[in-house]
Amino acid sequence: MENTHRWGRESLQMHQELKKQKNSKQLLFGIIQGNFYPELREESAKFINSLDFDGIAIGGIAIGEPKEEMYKAVDTVLPFITKDKPKYVMGVGSPEELLNLIERGIDCFDSVYPTQTARHNTLFTKKGKLYIDSIKYNKDFTSIEDDCQCHTCKHYTKAYLHHLTKIKEPAANRLKSIHNIHFILNLMEETKKAIKENRFKEFKDNFIKRFKI
């Protein structure tokens, strides 16, 4: 943690100097650490927040710990982060986790989850996860999801994706990834709309209830 703080201070100084030299608009986020020790996370949050970073990243989570531990680590630091700074959680990408963290005030995410899940033959739908390698899809000539506008759903059936998956055709992973990424991007658009219309809680609860079926 102390190394992170030192590097944070040094990188911020260099970043600010380079911005002046090059008239750059690049942003720099500081990273909170502290493992799963609340007192260290609080200390780290206070220190990183005291520096003039453009945003705050919450690191050291989503590395295999139980979800409740992850949420607890996030909840520990949020009171010590300036509210108008963008808050970024690293390595989180499942639909349920995204919505639960947005509810807590997190703004930014990055994750390999949509593509990693696709490579393991799991596709996202509004009614839950679809396992495309299952034999029940070998003669299913419908799209992954009827109302999905992604390239994969517009042009290919579940039966074809099942076939590509079974013969280990490289295009299978690409097509499955296209769908999952589109699903997450669309979920975020729907989430932003729900927030603007002051119905986020209802939207989140309904989505998670359907997705877990």
Description:
The chain is of the alpha/beta class. The chain folds into 2 domains: 2-111, Alpha-Beta Barrel (TIM Barrel); 112-213, no CATH class. The protein is 54% helix and 11% strand. The chain has 9 helices and 6 strands. The strands form 2 sheets. A 4-stranded parallel beta sheet has the order 1-2-3-4. A two-stranded antiparallel ribbon has the order 5-6. Helix 2 links the parallel strand 1 and strand 2 (55-58). Helix 4 packs antiparallel against helix 9 (200-211). The longest helix has 27 residues, at 170-196. The radius of gyration is 20 Å and the shape is elongated.
Secondary structure elements and pairings:
Layout: H1 2-22, E1 29-32, H2 38-50, E2 55-58, H3 67-77, E3 87-90, H4 95-104, E4 108-110, H5 113-119, E5 122-125, E6 128-131, H6 151-155, H7 158-166, H8 170-196, H9 200-211
Parallel strand pairs: 1-2, 2-3, 3-4
Antiparallel strand pairs: 5-6
Helix pairs in contact: 3-4, 4-9, 5-8, 7-8, 8-9
Summarize the structure.
The chain is of the alpha/beta class. It is built from nine helices and six strands, in the order H-E-H-E-H-E-H-E-H-E-E-H-H-H-H.
* DSSP strand count: 6
Number of helices: 9
Determine the structural class based on helices, strands and strand pairing. alpha/beta
CATH superfamily of the largest domain: Aldolase class I
Name of the CATH first level of the largest domain: Alpha Beta
Count of distinct structural domains: 2
Radius of gyration: 20 Å
Major beta sheet, specifics?
Answer: 4 strands, parallel
What would CATH call the architecture of the largest domain?
A: Alpha-Beta Barrel
- What string, H for helix and E for strand, traces the elements in order? HEHEHEHEHEEHHHH
Amino-to-carboxy terminus distance = 40 Å
> Roughly how much helix do the residues carry, as a percent range?
40-55%
